[in-house]
Write a structure and sequence with these properties.
The protein has a single domain, classed as first zn-finger domain of poly(adp-ribose) polymerase-1 (2-Layer Sandwich), CATH 3.30.1740. It is 14% helix and 35% strand. It has 2 helices and 7 strands. The chain has a 5-stranded antiparallel sheet. Strand 3 and strand 4 (43-44) form a beta hairpin. The structure holds zinc ion. Zinc ion is lined by residues 37, 39-40, 42, 67-68, 71.
């Protein structure tokens, strides 16, 4: 398996699929408020670099969660299919929201 250590960063995000066929996008973020990591349930402090896990459902719709980078690396990455790095621009909020509005059948998989 390829190493994605240090990713996502400012320039690169990660993307892949769940076993159920939903898209997962992993995006670097800086906390604007206090979050609870969904991996360890400890806090992510304001100003901390962390990752946002954005899900886009196969049938449309989005949801997201905040994780410590290390928790995501240790718990999540090995469960994601076809994990790969993409330009951070591909994972901008408007782009992902637009993807969430379309059923997957009409969506082109990113290359
Ligand atoms: Zn954590």
């Amino acid at each position: 398996m390829k190493s994605f250590s240090g990713l996502p960063d400012r320039r690169s995000s990660l993307t892949g699929h769940t076993d159920e066929g939903d898209e997962i996008w992993i995006i670097r973020s800086i906390s604007q408020k206090l979050y609870t990591c969904q991996g360890c349930y400890d806090s992510i402090q304001v100003g901390d670099e962390h990752v946002v896990i954005q899900y886009i459902g196969r049938a449309g719709g989005t949801e997201h969660a905040h994780w410590h980078r290390r928790c995501a690396e240790e718990i999540l990455y090995s469960q994601i299919r076809d994990l790969r790095a993409v330009s951070a621009g591909e994972s901008s909020r408007p782009r992902l929201e637009a993807r969430g509005r379309k059923p997957a059948g009409r969506r082109r998989r990113p290359r």
